[in-house]
Amino acid sequence: MTGLATYLYTTDDPRFNLYGTPRHRFNGVRTPRYGNARDLKHAIAEIRALTSEETISTDDEDLLAHGYSEWSTTNIDQMPVAVAYPKTTVEVADIAKICYKYRVPMIPYSGGTSLEGNFSAPFGGMSIDFVHMDKIIALHEADMDVVVQPAVSWMNLNEQIKDSGLFFPVDPGPSAKIGGMVGTSCSGTNAVRYGTMKDWTINLTVVLADGTIVKTKKRPRKSSAGYNLTSLFVGSEGTLGLVTEVTLKLAVIPQETNVAVVTFPTVRDAATAAAQVMRAGIQVAAMEIMDEVQMYVVNKSGSTSKKWKEVPTLFFKFSGTKAGVEESISTVKAITKCHKAGDFEFARDAEEQKTLWSARKEALWSMLALREKGSEVWSTDVAVPLSRLSDIIEISKKEMDDLGLFASVLGHIGDGNFHESILYDKNNPNERDAVEKCVHDMVDRALEMDGTCTGEHGVGLGKKEYLLKELGLDTIGLMMSIKAAMDPRWLLNPGKIMDIPS
């Protein structure tokens, strides 16, 4: 079912097709017809003739690496049939023109760390890997922006520009690349202070399905000229175009940074304290939560040099002037004390900052390290209004505990976004079904609380049915109309965010 229809809500209603989509809305949008094996063979030959032999790979290991992810809970049997490795925007456009001619689906690939099957290939086709497009094209220090290609790592970017006194603040997983970050409109621990990817993207160079190259706007920080096409592509998961260049805003590296770690007797106490810190208007740079299970996981994995108390814990990052940071630490300490806080530990130098923050940054890696043969980690996220955060975390945690499986809660509690990670035996259908129901209930609960099915992972294949519940048929219908107008043959990352039209 993963790569096919998942919107099976109203199949008995004559107003809707198998996908739950209103029939009347798509009169004129045909079911896409993809090329056959012969078409694909011609496409590969033409791309190689136009570029080079090495541009295309059909090696089995290459195909597996671009169709399956150990990070993702949503994996399918179908793999891409070929992988293309373009080096320039023009080569991407040439590849797109040939794929358009032969009706070959195109799936963009950069870091490969997405969690919801975002780069899987349910209709086969060609994975387009931007690994060779990893250059910083231009740094404009005076304008505080930078132009990069999609395979640039955000961590490498910050390392290369640090002498300018500037940095790029969006910080998802360590191996994430800018292209995928644009695709999912990702965020990270700094989102509570700096926002998400859409807030830091100035413009994009995009190759459309038929090979047309467009630039969404010029380079000013603000513009009211025409449609906001930049924001249309950010978060579209490669379903509307192939991003080949990105202009990003940069921020000034703060004068002072510090980190504090605070323990609590319960997750509710920690979540309530976090909400009060936000309500007090304290400009924390990051505020993260990990429950007692996740703290145990970090200890057991040995991924950090420190031994941690295995109780619910908040991680704070403060930045600004020295006086401002000291004042923020003092205020947060007072607020958390009112909510049964235990130890309040803050760093005294840069090395201690790294040590204290290491537990949060190593959280997912620590959980993955516990996997044994046949086991998987189901990691998913939701986001809710701040006032409902303590409720949903407490209820969801109890449901996870009732499973009797190894499960933890962690997340970006400062902006209402939290994650569940559950370790289960993938070969045990009963365990898999129980975990799936637990996750399903958590997402439903988030939607009932006026939240969202995903705060930062994106929709991909894994959350299409939840997106329909969240937005409704009319809004999904509008998205499908936009998709059909920009990609009438439904070639760009088909089956992601929404099903192909029936």
> Which of globular, elongated, flat, extended, rod-shaped describes the shape?
globular
Q: How many angstroms separate the termini?
A: 15 Å
Strand order of the largest sheet: 15-12-14-13-17-18-16
For the largest beta-sheet, the strand count, sense and barrel status come to: 7 strands, antiparallel
Helix amount? 25-40%
Number of E-type strands: 18
Q: Low-confidence spans: pLDDT under 50, at least 5 residues? A: 1-25
Estimated structural class: alpha+beta
Question: β content, as a range?
Answer: 15-25%
Number of helices: 17
Round the mean pLDDT to the nearest integer and report it. 90
Rg (CA only): 23 Å
Could you walk me through the main structural features you see in this protein, from its secondary elements to its overall organization?
It is globular, with a radius of gyration of 23 Å. The strands form four sheets. It has a seven-stranded antiparallel β-sheet, sandwiched between helices. Strands 5-6-10-8-9 form a five-stranded antiparallel β-sheet. The protein has a four-stranded mixed β-sheet with strand order 1-2-4-3. The protein has helices spanning 37-50, 60-65, 89-102, 154-161, 178-184, 191-194, 197-200, 229-233, 267-279, 292-301, 322-337, 350-361, 363-369, 389-403, 429-448, 464-471, 473-486; strands at residues 56-57, 82-84, 106-109, 126-129, 136-140, 145-148, 166-167, 201-207, 213-215, 242-249, 251-252, 256-263, 284-290, 313-320, 344-346, 375-383, 406-412, 417-425. With 502 residues, the protein is an alpha+beta fold. Helix 9 (267-279) runs antiparallel to helix 14 (389-403), helix 10 (292-301) crosses helix 13 and helix 16 (464-471) packs across helix 17 (473-486). Residues 1-25 have low confidence and may be disordered. The chain is built from 17 helices and 18 strands. The longest helix is centred in the C-terminal third of the chain and has 20 residues, at 429-448. Helices cover 35% and strands 19% of the residues.
